[in-house]
Amino acid sequence: MSSSKKVDRAQLHVHATFNNTIITLTDTQGQVLAWKTPGMVGFKGSRKGTPFAAQRATERLVDQMKDFGIRSVTVLIKGTGSGRNAVVNALKSASVRIEEVKNVTPVAYS
Protein backbone atom coordinates (compact mmCIF):
# COMPACT_ATOMS: atom_id res chain seq x y z
CA MET A 1 0.00 0.00 0.00
CA SER A 2 1.28 3.41 -0.85
CA SER A 3 1.37 5.80 2.08
CA SER A 4 2.43 8.78 -0.01
CA LYS A 5 -1.00 10.38 0.40
CA LYS A 6 -1.16 12.68 3.44
CA VAL A 7 -4.57 13.19 5.02
CA ASP A 8 -5.48 15.09 8.21
CA ARG A 9 -9.02 13.77 8.65
CA ALA A 10 -10.44 10.39 7.70
CA GLN A 11 -13.42 8.10 8.16
CA LEU A 12 -13.27 4.69 9.78
CA HIS A 13 -16.00 2.31 8.60
CA VAL A 14 -16.62 -0.60 10.97
CA HIS A 15 -18.73 -3.52 9.73
CA ALA A 16 -19.31 -5.72 12.78
CA THR A 17 -20.95 -9.10 12.26
CA PHE A 18 -21.21 -11.96 14.72
CA ASN A 19 -18.40 -13.82 12.93
CA ASN A 20 -16.02 -11.03 11.90
CA THR A 21 -15.25 -7.31 12.05
CA ILE A 22 -14.11 -5.43 8.93
CA ILE A 23 -12.44 -2.06 9.54
CA THR A 24 -11.94 0.22 6.51
CA LEU A 25 -10.07 3.52 6.54
CA THR A 26 -11.18 6.05 3.92
CA ASP A 27 -10.55 9.72 3.25
CA THR A 28 -13.42 12.18 3.56
CA GLN A 29 -14.51 11.52 -0.05
CA GLY A 30 -14.77 7.76 0.57
CA GLN A 31 -11.61 6.63 -1.23
CA VAL A 32 -10.21 3.55 0.54
CA LEU A 33 -6.78 4.08 2.09
CA ALA A 34 -6.39 0.83 4.06
CA TRP A 35 -8.41 -1.94 5.68
CA LYS A 36 -7.93 -4.66 8.27
CA THR A 37 -9.80 -7.69 9.53
CA PRO A 38 -9.01 -10.05 12.40
CA GLY A 39 -8.16 -12.71 9.81
CA MET A 40 -5.37 -10.48 8.44
CA VAL A 41 -3.93 -10.19 11.95
CA GLY A 42 -3.82 -13.93 12.52
CA PHE A 43 -7.18 -14.92 14.03
CA LYS A 44 -8.98 -17.86 12.46
CA GLY A 45 -12.40 -19.43 12.80
CA SER A 46 -14.74 -18.36 15.58
CA ARG A 47 -12.01 -16.29 17.25
CA LYS A 48 -12.40 -13.65 14.51
CA GLY A 49 -15.73 -12.58 16.00
CA THR A 50 -14.30 -11.69 19.41
CA PRO A 51 -13.81 -8.14 20.70
CA PHE A 52 -10.11 -8.87 21.32
CA ALA A 53 -9.61 -9.73 17.65
CA ALA A 54 -11.29 -6.47 16.59
CA GLN A 55 -9.06 -4.57 19.01
CA ARG A 56 -5.89 -6.12 17.55
CA ALA A 57 -6.99 -5.36 13.98
CA THR A 58 -7.70 -1.75 14.98
CA GLU A 59 -4.26 -1.42 16.57
CA ARG A 60 -2.64 -2.55 13.31
CA LEU A 61 -4.75 -0.08 11.34
CA VAL A 62 -3.77 2.76 13.70
CA ASP A 63 -0.13 2.05 12.82
CA GLN A 64 -0.98 2.59 9.16
CA MET A 65 -2.98 5.71 10.02
CA LYS A 66 0.16 7.29 11.45
CA ASP A 67 1.93 6.72 8.11
CA PHE A 68 -0.85 8.69 6.39
CA GLY A 69 -0.58 11.51 8.95
CA ILE A 70 -4.19 11.12 10.09
CA ARG A 71 -4.93 12.98 13.32
CA SER A 72 -8.71 12.64 13.67
CA VAL A 73 -11.39 10.24 12.48
CA THR A 74 -15.13 9.95 12.16
CA VAL A 75 -16.27 6.42 13.04
CA LEU A 76 -19.22 4.91 11.14
CA ILE A 77 -20.42 1.66 12.74
CA LYS A 78 -22.62 -0.83 10.91
CA GLY A 79 -23.83 -4.11 12.34
CA THR A 80 -24.50 -5.75 15.69
CA GLY A 81 -21.32 -7.73 16.30
CA SER A 82 -19.23 -7.71 19.45
CA GLY A 83 -16.39 -5.76 17.82
CA ARG A 84 -18.32 -2.48 17.81
CA ASN A 85 -17.18 -1.12 21.16
CA ALA A 86 -13.75 -2.74 20.98
CA VAL A 87 -12.81 -0.68 17.92
CA VAL A 88 -13.78 2.63 19.54
CA ASN A 89 -11.97 1.72 22.77
CA ALA A 90 -8.83 0.74 20.85
CA LEU A 91 -8.90 4.10 19.05
CA LYS A 92 -9.21 5.92 22.37
CA SER A 93 -6.31 4.03 23.91
CA ALA A 94 -4.18 4.76 20.82
CA SER A 95 -4.86 8.49 21.38
CA VAL A 96 -6.59 9.01 18.04
CA ARG A 97 -8.97 11.98 18.09
CA ILE A 98 -12.51 10.74 17.48
CA GLU A 99 -14.65 13.55 16.07
CA GLU A 100 -17.91 11.63 15.83
CA VAL A 101 -19.30 8.12 16.19
CA LYS A 102 -22.33 7.29 14.03
CA ASN A 103 -24.41 4.14 14.01
CA VAL A 104 -25.33 3.50 10.36
CA THR A 105 -26.85 0.04 10.86
CA PRO A 106 -29.70 -0.40 8.39
CA VAL A 107 -33.05 -0.95 10.10
CA ALA A 108 -35.92 -2.60 8.27
CA TYR A 109 -39.33 -0.96 8.54
CA SER A 110 -42.74 -1.63 7.10
Polypeptide structure, described:
With 110 residues, the chain is an alpha/beta fold. Helices cover 30% and strands 31% of the residues. The chain has three helices and five strands; from the N terminus they run βββααβαβ. A five-stranded mixed β-sheet has the order 3-2-1-4-5. The chain starts with 8 loop residues before the first strand and ends in a 7-residue tail after the last strand. The model has no long low-confidence stretch (mean pLDDT 92).
Low-confidence stretches: none
Widest sheet: strand ordering:
3-2-1-4-5
Structural class: alpha/beta
Work out the number of β strands.
5
Order of helices and strands: EEEHHEHE
| Average residue pLDDT | 92
Distance between the termini: 43 Å
Beta-strand content bin: 25-35%
Radius of gyration: 13 Å
Q: Regarding quaternary structure, how should these chains be classified? A: single chain
Number of helices: 3
- The gross shape turns out to be globular
Quick tags:
5 strands, five-stranded mixed sheet, globular, alpha/beta
How are the secondary structure elements laid out?
Elements: E1 9-16, E2 21-26, E3 32-36, H1 38-41, H2 51-68, E4 72-79, H3 83-93, E5 97-103
Parallel strand pairs: 1-4, 4-5
Antiparallel strand pairs: 1-2, 2-3
